[in-house]
User: Fold these one by one.
Assistant:
Number 1:
Amino acid sequence: MIYGIGTDIVEIDRIKKIKSHDTFANKILGSEELQEYKKLKGELKISFLGKHFAAKEAFVKALGTGFIEPVFPKGIQVISSNNGKPKYSLSNSIKSHIDSLGISRAHVSIADERNHLIAFAVLEI
């Protein structure tokens, strides 16, 4: 059964206009994501930030809360599975929170087209 769905769209030009991509990355990315981000260059860094931000926004929209304790951007990591499919990796505090709500699974899909990135999240009971 579906607990919630969320979607977010990001305009790449808005990410490009951020004064310090590295500062933004440090605010929103978890440790595993930061390791991947630091390996990238130029436009790939911008795309990475946009995709991960959209996926985190989609998650909190599916949850119906926005970013409020205990749900913060760094605690919602988007990592690649062995086949390249994105998946959520959640902090212990977020896992405990969603467990208390009866949520058992979280899914994410990310797509990009020219100047836009979109993420779609589904939370299951």
Note: The longest helix spans residues 42-63.
Number 2:
Amino acid sequence: MLDNMNFYNFMHKQILILIGLFASTGLSYVFIGSLYSSYLPEISWYLLILLVSLWGYKLYKSYSSNNYSIEEKEKWLSQTRYFLFTYFSIWTIIFFVYVSKDAIELHYIAIATQLGVSVVSATILVSEKKLALFILSFSMLPITIYLTLVGEPYSYLLAILTIVLGLVLLYASRNTYNYLQKSKFQAYHDYLTKLGNRRYFIELLENAIKLQKNDHKYVYLLLIDLDHFKTINDTLGHDIGDLLLCEVADRMTKISKEHGAHVSRLGGDEFCILSSTCKDKEICLKDAIEFANELLDSIKQTYIIEEHHMYISASIGVSIIDNPKMKAGTFIKEADIAMYEAKSLGRDGVILFNDELSIRVERKLEIERFLHFALENNEITLKYQPQLNADSKVIGCEVLVRWHNKILGHIGPDEFIPIAEQTGFIVELGYFILEEAFKTFSDWDKKGIKLDQLSINISMRQMFHNTFTDDVSSLCKKYLNPDLSSRLMFEMTETSVAEDITKLIDTMNQIKQCGIRFSMDDFGTGYSSLSYLRQIPIDELKIDKSFIFELEDANKDANMVKTILNIAKNLDLSIVAEGVETQMQKDFLIKEKCDVLQGYHFSKPIDKESFEEYTRSIEAT
């Protein structure tokens, strides 16, 4: 499709070039005619040139001013071929007119001009191989016949040389054509998979958008990104990874051909597919989802490459092209957003870009933009939620971060923390939280507020940063004595510990040298904790609040809480229950020997001064 588009555009440009060249050169024949007192043939011939030039200009303008469909462009191209053949044939007329005259110098002019026309046809029409061959033969044949009819030895030799020249021009034209085709293929195709590349796809999409203005039909765009492809490259090597990409490309190409779609490789493990046109938007949506799921099923079939049995899935974003005023890059961005949404929802899925997703992404981008100035504008604050033992004594607290922006208002940590992790801002934010928490902990100790522990949430990206252990060590030395350091508790979520278990254990052991302990937060919501409990050096389990919330209504959750408490006791781990909101929940947990309780039943997260007052009020009772 794109090759045809480029060809139409190329032929369109040649029309003006030929009109300018032939119309200006034709004037010289009118001048030559005046020198030999021959006006009528030359002027008549030149008027014919102008008339055909007008035809060509009309073709040029019609292509420029109309958004033709493919069928209409084919009709236009057919007319253009007739125009070109007629245009070049007119020069043969003037050749026969001049060689019929007695003045031998006019013969030379006719031969030179006809040779020039032959060279022009071989050059200008290089991309129209069949037409170039026909016109070149048609232009060279009169010269050969003329020289043969002269009947002299030199003329026979010149006739042979003319044939040789024609063959050379044909050879040069064919070589140029092949070179252009090869160069175009390299410019528009991916070297590895031989699929169209990003440049190819963008031009293809731009042409589809232009056609939509005229056809009022719909097309859809699929953006496919392979899941965990980097793991294959890292473990089996790039050679195996490349072979896998080729196999994936072959599968997608086969299915795409069945649907009349075009597949391209944008780069890495990312592919794009542009569909054929649909008359109805609802049908287009239905086809897009069905096609995407068919692709997923095919991609997930087992691969056998050099004795390696591999499995891979993909995340697919879908964008419906329904607004010809939008740019190609916008539709690719929409599909990209939908694709990353599919990844965030667990991968191996299809997501359609819609207004709701657009609003969510805009909100995310807005948060990301303001977040980078949050520390600078003193918008980040810390809250402290008390932790109490079975005797209702405050033994510690959890440090919780809050953000209030003048424009966005209050943004919850469940919304801005993931964005901070994705952008890397979590490192700077995490350092701020640690420093403020350490200063507060030290200040409380000086005021006589003795806590057994201060719990701080730590992101895996923050923990794996190359300066984290040094930062923690220097902050401990700056603000805390060894006794206070030993009362710190770093909380990690259960689902995050599986990211890189070896690196995690190594980092935890380095941090433990400062005396800091570790807690597994949200325990019970993940899927791999039990296999890691004996491996990672944790000191505490924190029961997720979802289990505590359902204690009053669900026996299953009560049994789950009892099980977690037993696991902690058997592994000699302390246990914290978060999300305690009722007296019944409190009584149940105390009865089951839960070490520490935390939740709104005791206190919501409060600022530093309020926490100090709360602690004193509890001590006074």
Note: Residues 153-188 form the longest helix (36 residues).
